[in-house]
Amino acid sequence: MSNSRQSDTEKLKKENLYRCLRVLEKNEGTRAVFDGKEIILFCGNDYLGMSRHPRVLAAAHKAIDRYGVGAGSARLIAGSTEAHAALEKKIARFKKKESALVFGSGFLANLGILTAFAGKNDTIVMDKLCHASLIDGARLSGAGIRVFPHKNYKKCEEILAKDNSGRKLIVTENVFSMDGDRADLRELIRIKKKHRAFLVVDDAHGTGVFGKNGPGATERFSKDIDIIMGTLSKAIGGLGGFAAADRTLIDHLINFARPFIFATALPPVLCETAREGFRVIEEEPELVKRLWSNIRKVHGGLAGAGFRLENPESAILPVIIGEEKEAMKVFEKLLTRGVFVPAVRYPTVPKGRARLRITVSAAHTDADIDFLLKAVKGLL
């Protein structure tokens, strides 16, 4: 390694921004073992406990026996199976769209969407707190990029009103992954229609969590959102990403989205487990109800312990600490008490806005929640 690379790493350490991997043993979704000690996890995105749902596990065993463990090829070569087609049909119906396309991950889906639909003569107008995958997709597209302050839709409209480029894309998350708050989709749809823009909504943290049977952003607004992106790795409990849209737009992605064209297909076993995950959400609505009951319990308990929190809009409950060094101290203290919630620091969040990103799952028991609330007492 060059001296410059070594100095980069040392600089991160001095600024309390250095990252390392922490290997968890016996990871069971909400519980694991770290350094020989059992801990409770309040940091994952498996919001419904779907990764260990008996029906999903049974679907995985059945699919492995049939398909093996890999796809063996890109989708446009020999990697498309009936499992992919069935999953895409299920996603389209779930998201109330004509068609859908599955990618290897949510990150790849966002790269594919933005690079396929924007180019050097176009403009992408995006929320300041959009996920890194959306930022990277916008940069790779070659389009002009304009950023508006978080949820400042007046500024968003001002940018569009002055823009004379070709295609205009408005890009937002539905649930912002580090703050847990939600975009005003109704307002963005109004702006989109007025300025003849193209609206892309990342619903990674909303899919499976909101609405009757968990459709997320599509519950009321599907018709007016041009492309809904989502992941199979959060409430669906597996791995992969997708785009749901009108059939002509999905056909465009098949032909122009490089992360789809040139990547090996998602393994069929993961398609089958994801499809079963969607079925479980539709057929067992008590999971979403239990998630929201747990969210309210955790939020109420944290507020009662003196933490300043906004009203919960999702399963993500950020506790702002501030300085990176202090956030790491709080994380370490919580870890000694048996709760695992890593500190989120720059560049994932702005400098000086380090936080504990507490996430809640339907799989958390009342005892888990009581344990968390006892652990945070006197923490700050």
Q: What percent of residues adopt helix (DSSP H or I)?
A: 40-55%
Write down the overall geometry: globular
Count structural domains. Answer: 2
Task: List the strand order in the largest sheet.
Answer: 3-9-8-7-6-4-5
CATH class categorisation of the largest domain: Alpha Beta
| Second CATH tier, the architecture of the largest domain | 3-Layer(aba) Sandwich
List SSEs in N-to-C order. Answer: HEEHHHEHEHEHEHEHEEHHHHEHEEEH
Q: Indicate the structural class.
A: alpha/beta
State the separation between the terminal residues, measured CA to CA: 40 Å
Task: Name the CATH superfamily classification of the largest domain.
Answer: Type I PLP-dependent aspartate aminotransferase-like (Major domain)
Give me the number of helical elements.
Answer: 15
Biggest sheet character: 7 strands, mixed
| Relative strand content | 15-25%
Features:
single chain, 380 residues, alpha/beta, Aspartate Aminotransferase, domain 1, Aspartate Aminotransferase, domain 2, seven-stranded mixed sheet, 15 helices, globular
Task: Describe the protein in words.
The protein folds into 2 domains: 16-45 and 285-376, Alpha-Beta Complex (Aspartate Aminotransferase, domain 1); 53-283, Aspartate Aminotransferase, domain 2. Helices cover 43% and strands 16% of the residues. It has 15 helices and 13 strands. Strands 3-9-8-7-6-4-5 form a 7-stranded mixed sheet, with helices on both faces. A 3-stranded mixed sheet has the order 1-2-11. A 3-stranded antiparallel sheet has the order 10-13-12. Strand 4, helix 6 (132-141) and strand 5 (144-148) form a beta-alpha-beta unit. It is globular. The two termini are 40 Å apart.
